[in-house]
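Thread: "does anyone have the structure for this chain?"

Original post by V.I.:
We have the sequence but no experimental structure in hand. Need at least a predicted one for the grant figures.
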Amino acid sequence: MKKLLAVLCLCTSLGLMAQTDFNDVFAAGVEDAEQFTTDYMEPLSESVVYSLATGWYNTADAKPFGGFEISIIGNITGFKNKTDKKTFILDPNDYQNLDFVENPGTARAVSTALGDITGTRVYVEGEVAGFTTRKEFTLPSGLSGEGVDFVPSGYIQASVGLIKGMEIKARFLPKMQYEDASVGLVGIGLQHDFTKLLPADKILPVAISAVIGYTNISGDYNLENVNIAEGENQRIESNINSWNFSAVVSTKLPIINFYGGLGYVLGKSVTDVLGTYRVTEGPLTSEEFIDPFSITKKVSGVTGTVGTKLKLGFFRLNAEYNLGEFNTATLGINFGFR
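Reply from O.Q.:
Generated one for you, tokens below.
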């Protein structure tokens, strides 16, 4: 599991889902499986959207025509103190077949994909050929249960100055394969420096810009080698979109500068569980599910950014902290000319 974290945040998401024994989950029926998986994955999907919305700027001072900068950007989105994101309330009354082994019929907190609650035993029960059949299993824990309290992401980004204070940006991560998971990232952004339109631009001590950035990250996880359930063509496919709309202000000093921004994040994640799954235990034995469900999560929220940038000729280094529903620390290594 921790090896997946070294690749990218989406591989983390897919790896967590792959650890879930779908034979157990589907033993409760596809409706119960979808409801549990949706609640379990929701905070992780949300954290990825906020992580992808960062890193679009390191100054409000747009580059002149032909100026460029190439950056290597890494993000760490933490959730160590996000106790409300580490659990959700599972109420058996909202499920058709799933219930707790201890204190059945009573709602209780269970782990999300970010959480650390372990050993939660549940069961499904029903009639098979006139006999009562019961299956018990343990619900999965999350990243905190493995001592991991962050979600990482990273990519390469390029910026080029256009005319009249306009700057175009692009980010990408070539499709990467790690064991049974693959992930790739693309994004495009635009920055407009309003102070470039003023006659006194060259003597103003600050710059003010608007930034729009769009990022898409997609990936898949082949479940054929995981043996989580009988079936064919089993895989998880995920697609996450993230928009950032920001107003940015920064100083215009020769070597070290400071910048800040107020932004709004919009995002959507869609995760599809695909393939054929056959239940081999419990009251739904011999049931077969094909492309059983899709999980969709929409995200929106206000963010704030504070950062600093050091410029030493061709080399630049920036660090920032982003405040929002999930907080993200960003480090950029930049090479450019303006």
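V.I.: this helps a lot. Residues 1-8 have pLDDT under 50 and may be disordered.
O.Q.: and DSSP finds five helices and 17 strands in the chain.
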